[in-house]
Amino acid sequence: MLKRILFIFLALGLTAFAANVGDVTNVKTLKVNRGLTDAGKSCVECHAKMTPGHVNDWKESRHGHVGVSCIDCHSVKKDNPMAAQNCKGIKGTEIFVSALVSPKTCERCHPNEVKEFHQSGHARAAIQVKAKKGMQSLMQHFEGRDHKDFKHSPEATGCMQCHGSIIKLDKDKRPTAETWPNYGIGNVYPDGGVGNCKSCHSGHKFSIEEARKPAACASCHLGPDHPDIEIYNNSMHGHIFNAEGSKWKYDSAPDAWEPGDYRAPTCATCHMSGIGDLKTTHNVSKRLKWNIWAPISKTRDGGYETVVADYENGKITKGNALAGHPKGSKAARSEMEQVCASCHTKTHTKNFFTMADKHVKLYNTYATDAKKMIDELTKKGLMHKDKWSDKAFKIWYHLWHHEGRRMRQGALMGAPDYAHWHGVFEVQQDIRELKLIYDKRIKSGKIED
Amino acid sequence: MSRNTEKKAKSIWFIIGIFVLGGIIGLLFSFGVAVGVHKTSDDKFCTVCHTMQPMADSYYLDAHGGKNANGVQAKCVDCHLPHDSLANYLFEKARTGLHDFRVQNFGDPKSIDWEEKRKHAKRFVFDTGCMSCHTNLENATTGNTKAFVAHKEYFEKRTDKKCVECHKNVGHHILGDYIKK
Predict the structure, then answer these.
(1) What does UniProt say on post-translational modification here (chain B) (predicted)?
(2) Which candidate in A121, A363, B54, B79 could, as Cys together with A285 as Cys, close a disulfide (CB 3.0–4.6 Å)?
């Protein structure tokens, strides 16, 4: 009897779950007759049987509402590098499609979103990985062991899932396993499109609600090197979100999503949203004063990101590490202060940033001193040839790439545990350890065993 | 009549004559220019150079090249010259014409990478050209949900995208197949 009751509960639970995401079995016999061409209709109806999950997502989307269907985004001209007929329904017809959809397609209707994205640091995510020798050798040589079969697995399963890849096609115009599938934000598509809208607005729903929730950012902005979701959870903003965020409103129109719809900001609120007098932007770098990912933080006075223009001119570059607000870091900070002003007093905001900025500058003193030691050891030949075997190098790497980022990001996003215990406390431990090794090597003139 | 008044009358006729003659020559000249401008505006003239044959071939298979219900053709210059003012139209015609003449006769037209050139199609396809035929596009697309969203940013001047940046291949059906080396 107990088993039966449990089974009934389980079945009810599953039904409730299915009702939440849309009943996929209903989708399988979907007939649509509104606003679509005959070809467009046949895609939807056939794919409702073949890939009901896709069609179910689309049915829930704004695209579905305005009559933008499969063929509007997936059809390409025959001479597009991605054009294929790997689908029975269109084989031999004049219709060519691509499973991959590049931002070049999205920008036909969303030109400003794509343009702003290209002006942001997100745009360089994949291309810079190709441009940086250190990253290539870490993935393929150190981690992949230069293995003839396995050397690409570290980047395919790891790096490119967030960074994106330069997607290659096989002779049937299908993407290769080494470069796809991924949800990396900086993907480069064979048609030259750069970026990946689906990173935050997952397909085929492309939901604004989803992108406004911290989960959209959290799948990449986490972990020891940039624990941004952990930082958010540690902050008062995250505290309020976790307590009651499930009841907030996330589907207000762009530029009209304001306090009241929510009681605390999510990532998107501060970094992208049109709040108060500010306009919405898909340039996540625009409201940032510092680059707090770099070994030594500088203010972002480099204008817009440059990597896409470089790529269009045939160059793979590291991009612009100081990309930010076109009018410089002061303007960037003032925009961020405008965000804060929707909820906080001027004194609150000024005081907060005064101390957070000091924490960044304090970090810079550590990093400058540590870098000096590393440079001197390198100059005197007192570093291992294989840097990943070198104790001093590893400490330096963790100092800036892990502990130092936590210290700075924790401070600027109001996360005490990361600013302190996972941050400055670890940094001061690191530099002491590094100093001991440095003194030893300088004194003895050789690398310790 | 004194000789002086006779002389005066003669010179007045002479001046009138110059103006009339000048007018006639001017008219003939502008007629010639108009005919010239007209004759050098379509596929027949442009394909005098074989370099342009792939562009013409792909154009014939496109709606703009006559493959449409009414057989109407847009001429090459309807898209490839600016239509904002007559002066700019003629200036651009002369500039591109001289450039093409120079490259065709003294350059190496075979070395041109057409695929590369297509990437910046917006430099040689002019929105003012598109809009001089598609005069009612703004109104026509407000009733169509898909086209409305796509064209709204354009007509409200919130994007600097040009027509051909979204409407790739417009005017030349599968151009890529024709310009392959």
Answers:
(1) Binds 4 heme groups per subunit.
(2) A121
Cβ <8 Å between A79 and B145: no
Residues A337 and A226 in one domain: yes
- Residue A26 lies inside a defined structural domain of this protein: no
Confidence of residue B145 (pLDDT cuts 50, 70, 90): confident
Task: Verify that A405 and A269 share a domain, yes or no.
Answer: no
For chain B, the structural domain boundaries read 1-40, 47-177
Residue in this structure with the two tokens 């003239």, named with its chain if needed = B45
Kindly state whether residues A65 and A122 are assigned to the same domain: no
Find, among A170, A194, A173, A169, the residue nearest to A184 by Cα: A194
Q: Is B166 annotated as a binding-site member?
A: yes
Using a CB-CB distance cutoff of 8 angstroms, which residues of chain B are in contact with residue A77?
A: 168-169, 174, 176
Same domain as A122, residue A93: no
Kindly state whether B174 is in contact with chain A, defined as any CB-CB distance less than 8 angstroms: yes
Q: What distance in Å separates the CA atoms of residue A131 and residue A306, rounded to the nearest whole number?
A: 13
User: pTM above 0.90?
Assistant: no
Question: Residues in chain A, how many?
Answer: 449
A259 bridge partner residues: A262
Which residues in A lie closer than 8 A to residue B150 (C-beta atoms)? Answer: 108-109
**Is the minimum CB–CB distance between B177 and chain A shorter than 8 Å?**
yes
User: Could you give the CA distance from residue B64 to residue B70 in angstroms, rounded to a whole number?
Assistant: 11
* DSSP SS3 for A166: strand
Average model confidence (pLDDT) across chain B: 91
Name the strand (E) or helix (H) holding A305. none
Domain identity same for A185 and A273: yes
The CA dihedral of B109, B110, B112, B113, to the nearest 10 degrees, is 160
Return the CA Rg of chain A: 25
Q: Domain range for residue A363?
A: 349-444
Note the residue count of chain B: 181
Whether residue A289 sits in one domain with residue A215:
yes
Minimal Cα distance from A115: which residue of B? Answer: B159
A130 is a domain residue: yes
Residues B174, A67: C-beta atoms closer than 8 Å:
no
pLDDT at B170 over 90: yes
Residue B91 has pLDDT above 80, yes or no: yes
The answer to the question of residue A107 being in a domain is: no
Tell me, yes or no, whether A332 and A368 share the same domain: no
The verdict on A166 and A78 lying in the same domain is no
Q: Structural domain tally of chain A? A: 3
* A279 at interface of B, judged by CB pairs closer than 8 A: no
Interface test with B, best of A71, A79, A313 (most B CBs within 10 A): A79
End-to-end CA gap in chain B? 82
Question: Could you tell me if residue A106 is inside a domain?
Answer: no
Cβ atoms A107, A291 nearer than 8 A: no
In chain B, the residue whose alpha carbon lies closest to the alpha carbon of A67 is B146
ipTM: 0.76
Contacts of B170 (CB under 8 A, 6+ apart): B62, B64, B125, B163, B164
pLDDT digits (tens, 9 = 90+) for A336-365: 999 999 999 999 999 999 999 999 999 999
Instruction: State yes or no: cis peptide before A265, omega within 30 of 0.
Output: no
What is the fold, at CATH topology level, of the domain defined by B47-177?
A: Multiheme cytochrome fold (1.10.3820)
